[in-house]
TrEMBL record:
ATP binds at K127. Belongs to the protein kinase superfamily. InterPro entries: Kinase-like_dom_sf, Prot_kinase_dom, Protein_kinase_ATP_BS, Ser/Thr_kinase_AS. Residues 98-352 form the Protein kinase domain. This is NUAK family SNF1-like kinase 1-like. It comes from the Eukaryota. Keywords: ATP-binding, Kinase, Nucleotide-binding, Phosphoprotein, Serine/threonine-protein kinase, Transferase. Pfam families: Pkinase. SUPFAM superfamilies: Protein kinase-like (PK-like) (SSF56112). GO terms for molecular function: ATP binding; protein serine/threonine kinase activity.
Length: 352
């Protein structure tokens, strides 16, 4: 199923989206920020055009967000790393055409705001990034990645960027939806109906496959980075840790970069084996699928080391915690995605 062909089951699962007036995806946020009361045109906003970052709500009032699935297996924040510098291919756009509304999300490196594009008469999302020092390499990489994947189904269209000496703002289509973590949380992390889960996972797999075809690996796939709108359409967001894959004689080269969210990381990270970016996405897709179907992570953090050594494998139960039986077909696909040997691990296409 394509992500823009929502089915009744997917729409039923996402019916709670309409209950949210503002889509929030703040799992990785470690501080709470406010937009100055004088907010107006972005060109005049001190938080977007000046050297200083947004003002924290009290210097010592940081809010650490900790979320758990089914009372255990705590979600971890992403671990960042520096990327090589890549020149952007989008031209700069004028900030004067945008009016800032409110903060709608945040992640490890950026903060996302809803805004209005007066020139095009449309709502947009603006991601604000700090480009000071070595962080500019990462910002330029995200601009390049966003340019390459723009147009892939299930990815918000990238419209361009504007920047000052210290800040860069990326402009995307605004997705009026909610991330899967929030939807699962509202359900009390109960397992999702298999048909609805298949529809969502198929859409994510199509999007990931489209990105891989263009030479981009997401590398931070997780519930928080998958959004579903009120129509049941599925979107993959936050390409801040994505990479442009290197190939030799048509074959993907391994990477030494360590990034992503701990519980979604492939086991080969821990023993420094060859790490292929596409196989990283495969593993994370398998973890995401398991969470949707079973309502919890497939393993505890302590199990990761044993997995990395090949001393154990990921068990795929026949029955969920609420007594629902999972089909053999989807269980086999999960086993293929969660194969500890990356050479034997299936590609994301297996869920398409």
């Amino acid at each position: 199923m394509r992500e823009h062909e929502p089915t009744e089951t997917a729409t039923t699962f996402t019916s709670t989206v309409s209950q949210f007036s503002t889509p929030l995806s703040l799992r990785d946020s470690l501080k709470t920020y406010v937009v100055p009361a004088s907010s107006g045109n972005l060109a005049t906003l001190p938080n977007l055009s000046a050297a200083s970052p947004l003002t924290p709500v009290g210097a010592s009032q940081t809010t650490t967000v900790t979320r758990c699935l089914a009372g255990k297996r705590t979600l971890q924040c992403s671990t960042g790393f520096l990327l090589h510098s890549l020149l952007p291919t989008h031209s700069m756009i004028a900030p004067e055409r945008y009016e800032l509304y409110a903060k709608i999300g945040g992640g490890t490196y950026g903060t996302v705001y809803s805004a209005y594009d007066w020139e095009k008469d449309r709502d947009v999302a603006i991601k604000r990034l700090d480009n000071r020092g070595t962080q500019d390499d990462r910002v330029l990489n995200e601009i390049k990645v966003s340019t390459v994947v723009s147009g892939v189904e299930g990815v918000a269209t990238f419209h361009g960027f504007f920047r000052s000496s210290n800040l860069t703002c990326l402009v995307f289509d605004k997705i009026d939806g909610v991330d899967l973590f929030t939807l699962m949380e509202k359900r009390g992390f109960l397992p999702v109906d298999e048909k609805a889960a298949r529809d969502i996972l198929s859409a994510v797999a199509h999007t990931l496959s489209g990105c891989h075809t263009r030479g981009i690996a997401h590398r931070d796939l997780k519930l928080e980075n998958i959004m579903v709108d009120a129509n049941g359409c599925v979107f993959l967001v936050d390409f801040g840790l994505a990479s442009i894959m290197r190939k030799v004689e048509g074959k993907e080269r391994p990477t030494k970069d360590i990034c992503g969210s701990i519980k979604y990381m492939a086991p080969e990270y821990l023993n420094r084996k060859r790490v292929m970016s596409t196989k990283m996405d495969s593993w994370a897709l398998g973890v995401t699928a398991y969470i949707l179907l079973y309502g919890e992570f497939p393993y505890d953090e302590d199990d990761l080391y044993a997995l990395s050594l090949g001393l154990t494998c990921v068990e795929i139960p026949r029955v969920t915690s609420d007594g629902t039986e999972i089909s053999l077909d989807i269980r086999q696909k999960l086993a293929d995605l969660l194969h500890v040997d990356p050479e034997e691990r299936a590609s994301v296409d297996i869920l398409m």
